[in-house]
């Protein structure tokens, strides 16, 4: 059981899938725990072998902690989940989760307080998250009109936007996948948004403009070029 | 299919994040079990019940155990003569007021540091108040399980009584309203098996093996609970309609009650429950998150079985009601006036 869990944690790490599960600051915790579990597993195995060689039956410690589950069930559950986890490939969240978690409200508040505020950043160097944070701090769309934008993210067809708009979106993670939340900006394109599938990753270059969408004045990106890109190794931003 | 994959991704994400902290908590509580002698600690506790309750709550920082480790420790504290206020203060505060839990909560709620500090502060306040209330009962024995009661030393207050009585019939032997059985204080002589932590006298290599075995055993038991709790969190997040959860989570009163009930049911360990709460962070009020984080470690479904090894049902009901009311009250104040 311990070996399986140690193996599971290390496998997520070695296949790079851990980026989908955790904020990178905490990956080392999972890796350390993986090694510790492996170590414990090896120690127990060694003990069992040693006892078996001497012909002593393995006895459970007598003082047991009362618990919700009988110990046997708990071990079985742990083992089953670990074995299942070894087969399972986690996938990054996509448009469905984004819409459910409220990217449709367009400018979702970012929960992170911006740690550094760089006013001298060139507009085209700002990431999607930088833009949304900037708008949170100074929510006046007109102030940014005409600035250049170049952001990466995936496409969401927000139901409350006209058909020549989609939302370019990214998830922000602070701890683990349980708390990822989407941020996005509307993008105006020529033609219909069905040319770009939901969940497709794009780099959007364009200029900022102010529009009234869904009864709200807000910043939109007027796209000049749209380049399909690969889904990044680490799909979240921070 | 997408939903299932999302739920599983969420599930494994929570598990992978929580596992290191569970391991750390288990490691600490096992080390504690094997290497610390509580008797020296008790000798240094102040007499005043409020101070004792504060000390009891504060020593969680020396004894970083989650709620599965704190009951055996509290039991040993009581048996070795710790005042009631200290033992109860420790019992309620230790699972939350300790460095491992503080760190885990910090990692989960980095963006809302107020949650971290309010969690620790509120837990301490509730634990101290309940501990203080319990000190009104000068002798805890009627509230304890017979085995523990027998093992307890004579009450401090009783020792100062005028010594006109027979030395064979000590004060506090019979209790009004407790006619079912007389309590026999002479039991304390035969109870050395509980009174002294038997492991402390063993050689180091044996201790290390016991340490490994204890860690593995606790991982085995708590891991199962962690998996169940995580599965509930993942299912609620992905499959329960969001409007429904938000509706429940936004009311200042309903959100607190819902999260307290959830805390009671999922019985997740305090070292990892902040990750569980995190998945509700965007939909529930801060007061409700705090109610979950403060109340859960004190009393939950799993914990009651443990507490029954120490207290009688009546005392557990007192603990449950007192801690629940205080948590609810404070969290409601936070919902109404702070956030």
UniProtKB/TrEMBL annotation, chain B:
Membrane topology listed for this record: Multi-pass membrane protein
Entry superkingdom: Bacteria
UniProt subcellular location: Cell membrane
Cellular component, GO, one term: plasma membrane
Protein name stated in the entry: Permease
Keyword GTP-binding: no
Alphabetized UniProt keyword annotations: Cell membrane, Membrane, Transmembrane, Transmembrane helix
Family: Belongs to the UPF0718 family.
